[in-house]
Amino acid sequence: MSEEKNDNPVEEEAPVPSEAEAPAEENGNDWREKYLRSLAELDNFRKRVERDRELSRQYALEDLVRALLPVLDNLELACASEGGADAIREGVALALKDALRVLGDRGLEAIEAVDRPFDPYLHEAMAGIPDAAHEPGTCVAELCRGYTLHGRVLRPSKVHVAVEPPASADQPAEDASRSKD
């Protein structure tokens, strides 16, 4: 284990690649270029997808808006109508009918509420109304119609729900006298 000291500066320089090593180095450079090119293509692909996604978001409602243009025309005609209230009401009713048809064609459905059992997923109770004519827990009035889109609730119906009417003034006295016995 003797240490030999080499004072020759030529041998300390980096070794010169032999002819056999040169193709391997070129091959490594080729792989590096392919790698860098792939990275650039991936970056361009990401930018293109993001640009397409943004355009899709911008114009996603184009079909719906185009279908609603006749509804807007009917509303404008109703507003410009020189007839009485009946003519205006008729124009607005026509526009409403068209709007519901257009939205219904695209999956919008009204939630049925009146005379149906209260469902917290479909209905929002605004008040409990004492009502002997309806079963407690039944929707008796719809304040604001709710809608679903392809089965998903967009807005629940705002309803009044039947509750059991309070006992008459005579009945609590009878109940109190029974409890004393």
Give the arrangement of secondary structure elements.
Elements: H1 21-59, H2 62-80, H3 85-105, E1 108-110, E2 123-130, E3 139-144, E4 147-149, E5 152-155, E6 157-163, H4 170-180
Parallel strand pairs: 2-6
Antiparallel strand pairs: 1-4, 3-6, 4-5
Helix pairs in contact: 2-3
Number of strands: 6
Mean pLDDT: 81
Low-confidence runs of at least 5 consecutive residues: none
* Helix/strand class: alpha+beta
The proportion of strand residues reads 15-25%
- General shape: elongated
Series of H and E elements? HHHEEEEEEH
Q: Output the number of helix runs.
A: 4
Q: Which oligomerization state do the chains in this entry correspond to?
A: single chain
CATH level 1 name of the domain at 109-166: Mainly Beta
CATH-defined topology of the domain at 109-166: Nucleotide Exchange Factor Grpe, Chain A, domain 2
Major sheet characteristics: 3 strands, antiparallel
Distance, first to last CA: 115 Å
Strand adjacency order, main sheet: 1-4-5
**Percent helix:** 40-55%
Named at the architecture level, the CATH assignment of the domain at 109-166 is: Roll
The CATH homologous superfamily of the domain at 109-166 is termed Head domain of nucleotide exchange factor GrpE
Task: Explain what the structure shows.
The radius of gyration is 39 Å and the shape is elongated. The chain is of the alpha+beta class. The mean pLDDT is 81. It has a domain at 109-166: Head domain of nucleotide exchange factor GrpE (Nucleotide Exchange Factor Grpe, Chain A, domain 2), CATH 2.30.22.10. The chain contains 4 helices and 6 strands. Strand 4 and strand 5 form a beta hairpin. A 3-stranded antiparallel β-sheet has the order 1-4-5. The chain has a 3-stranded mixed β-sheet with strand order 2-6-3, with no helix packed on it. It has helices spanning 21-59, 62-80, 85-105, 170-180, and strands at residues 108-110, 123-130, 139-144, 147-149, 152-155, 157-163. Helix 2 (62-80) packs antiparallel against helix 3 (85-105).
